[in-house]
Design a protein that fits this description.
Radius of gyration: 22 Å
Order of helices and strands: EEHEHEEHEEEE
Structural class: alpha+beta
Strand order of the largest sheet: 4-9-8-6
Number of helices: 3
Helix content: 25-40%
CATH architecture of the largest domain: Roll
CATH superfamily of the largest domain: Ribosomal protein L9, C-terminal domain
Number of strands: 9
Length: 148
């Protein structure tokens, strides 16, 4: 049976994929739980039209993300932290502090889209963080941890 996925399903496919599954799996699990709809001719036609419209919107979002990435390339952030005499930070620096520092610079970035080298930073120094602005647009920014 051919279905259109309405959301991501592990080990099956991504949202809006048109896939073939066994009829019982579709009727008893995917369709009743709202994970998919049957791929009737009218549903397929709606699906293709929705994808055309979504592609146009995605292109605008991607262009905006690329423009923001251009502005962020030369950005250098300084974060103050309380440290011991040996340079170790009391606590750690994580994505929340990076997101707050970016907000002060005028960039509204969700902390979930920021990845650090390792989970947390516990020493003073210079680091780089990768920020995911779009699924195809990533930018690396430098930041420095200094003692307060």
């Amino acid at each position: 049976m051919e279905i259109i996925l309405l959301q991501d399903v592990n080990k099956l496919g991504q949202k809006d994929d048109l896939i073939e599954v066994k009829p019982g799996y579709a009727r008893n699990y995917l369709i009743p739980r709202g994970f998919a709809i049957a791929a009737t001719p009218s549903a397929k036609k709606m699906h293709t039209e929705n994808q055309k419209q979504r592609a146009h919107k995605e292109e605008k979002i991607k262009v905006a993300a690329e423009e923001m990435a251009e502005k962020m390339t030369d950005l250098n952030i300084v974060i103050g932290a309380k440290t011991s005499s040996s340079g170790k930070i009391f606590g750690s620096i994580n994505t929340i502090q990076i997101a707050e520092a970016l907000k002060e610079q005028g960039f509204e970035i969700d902390r979930k889209n920021i990845s650090l080298p390792g989970d947390q930073i516990k020493e003073v120094g210079k680091y780089t963080a990768t920020i995911r602005l779009h699924k195809e647009v990533n930018v690396e920014i430098g930041f420095e941890i200094k003692t307060e």
